[in-house]
């Protein structure tokens, strides 16, 4: 299944798909999982991190969204830094040009598989690692429920808790950091039987980390100029 990389650079090409995915997120997280703090009258699950810095990896079947996830570079405000910093109380918040936060993974019910082979979720996971390696992100930070950690360890991911297990509403949650390298990607593809190169890029070349560094250098230079003046 092709997984499309969508950034602020090319999101104008995916307006319908971005809207579809907001509504799917609502169905999954609000209607099904009852995360009622995310409820909205327009039946779209959108938060403050669905902004110009958000990166979406959306699995498309034709023009229809069937799965996906979201990344936010941690140099900008993100879920763990702004909402759940206590989840990183031991190792500290993982922030840097090469660290990206992962949230909102989903697969529509009809594409979740029957347990006999690799699933679309496996392709999304492999696509995430593929994306990070292409862009130069060496770590993924994530707020997750505790059941995810043993699943990732089982497929060979180098994942470490950032703090203690914390009760958030009716969920046991962790902050986790995951190291990204080519060995982890190859292990994921082998263990989960995922084909290589699942990503599709339309008018969106790798270079996000370089853009972030350049943006922050411009900001620092502007601040220095105002201070000297």
Description:
The chain is α+β, with helices and mostly antiparallel strands and 229 residues long. It has one domain (3-228): Gcn5-related N-acetyltransferase (GNAT) (Aminopeptidase, 3-Layer(aba) Sandwich), CATH 3.40.630. The chain is built from six helices and nine strands. It has helices at 15-32, 79-82, 120-135, 148-154, 182-192, 208-228, and strands at 3-6, 55-61, 64-73, 99-107, 139-145, 158-161, 166-168, 171-179, 199-201. Strands 1, 2, 3, 4, 5, 6, 7, 8 and 9 form a nine-stranded mixed beta sheet that branches. Strand 2 and strand 3 (64-73) form a beta hairpin. Helix 3 runs antiparallel to helix 5 (182-192). The radius of gyration is 18 Å and the shape is globular. The mean pLDDT is 93.
Determine the CATH topology. Answer: Aminopeptidase
The CATH C-level name is Alpha Beta
Q: Give the topology string: H per helix, E per strand.
A: EHEEHEHEHEEEHEH
How many E-type strands?
Answer: 9
- Kindly report the name of the CATH homologous superfamily: Gcn5-related N-acetyltransferase (GNAT)
Report the C-alpha radius of gyration, rounded.
18 Å
Described by strand count, sense and barrel closure, the largest sheet is: 9 strands, mixed
Number of domains: 1
Global geometry: globular
CATH architecture heading: 3-Layer(aba) Sandwich
N- and C-termini, Cα separation:
55 Å
The amount of beta strand, in percent, is 15-25%
Portion in helices: 25-40%
Uncertain stretches: none
Mean pLDDT: 93
| Structure class | alpha+beta
């Amino acid at each position: 299944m092709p997984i499309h990389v969508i950034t602020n650079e090319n999101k104008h090409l995916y307006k319908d798909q971005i809207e579809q995915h907001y509504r799917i997120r609502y169905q999954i997280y609000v209607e099904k999982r009852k995360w009622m703090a995310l409820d909205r009258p327009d039946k779209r699950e959108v938060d403050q991190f669905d902004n110009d810095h958000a990166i979406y990896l959306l699995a498309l079947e034709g023009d229809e969204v069937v799965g996906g996830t979201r990344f936010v570079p941690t140099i900008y405000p993100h879920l763990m830094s702004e909402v759940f910093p206590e989840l990183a109380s031991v190792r500290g918040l993982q922030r840097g040009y090469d660290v990206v936060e992962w949230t909102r993974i989903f697969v529509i019910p009809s594409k979740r598989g029957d347990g006999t082979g690799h699933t679309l979720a496996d392709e999304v996971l492999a696509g995430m690692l593929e994306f990070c390696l292409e862009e130069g992100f060496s770590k993924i930070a994530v707020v997750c429920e505790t059941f995810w950690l043993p699943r990732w360890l089982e497929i060979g991911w180098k994942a470490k808790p950032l703090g203690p297990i914390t009760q958030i509403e009716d969920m046991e949650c962790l902050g986790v950091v995951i190291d990204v390298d080519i060995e982890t990607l190859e292990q994921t593809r082998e263990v989960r039987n995922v084909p290589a190169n699942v990503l599709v890029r339309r008018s969106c070349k790798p270079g996000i980390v370089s853009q972030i560094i350049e943006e922050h250098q411009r900001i620092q230079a502007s601040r220095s100029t105002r201070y000297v003046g």
